[in-house]
Amino acid sequence: MRARLTYFTLAAVLVVYFVLVGSRGVLLIKQGTAVTVVLGAAVLVLPVIGIWFLWHTTRFARDAGRLARELEAEGGLPVDELRRTPAGRIDRDSADEVFARRRAETERSPEDWRSWFRLAVAYHDARDTPRARKAMQRAIALRRREG
């Protein structure tokens, strides 16, 4: 719950920032000189890219959360079986062992969104965020195809 509150607070701050930057871009364009119009147009690109990125990130988080809730209701969420260091960090060898099992599961069932979801969690635990995101995107796409 705290993570969700933090996310929405930061998203709201970003939207306010985008509005402020966008209004500055409009003011520059209204000045009407060649330099200010070009600068204003360039400034307007930043909020557009930011809003696009925020929208896709929010949609990804919402869809991943929906899959997690569905998998939890089925009793299929991955169990945390990772060893941890005394400081509480995930042991790298332990994460690699779990990852190998999840990868084998996904190779056996490449069209099962559930295995891709668990693989995404394993990638995340192994600190491979880009691949975790791609695996989760694959899980989301497969779930959408199921209907």
Automatic annotation (TrEMBL):
Keywords of the record: Membrane, Transmembrane, Transmembrane helix
InterPro entries named among the record's database cross-references: TPR-like_helical_dom_sf
Membrane spanning residue stretches: 7-27, 33-55
Domain of life per record: Bacteria
Protein's recorded name: Tetratricopeptide repeat protein
Source organism of the structure: Streptomyces daliensis
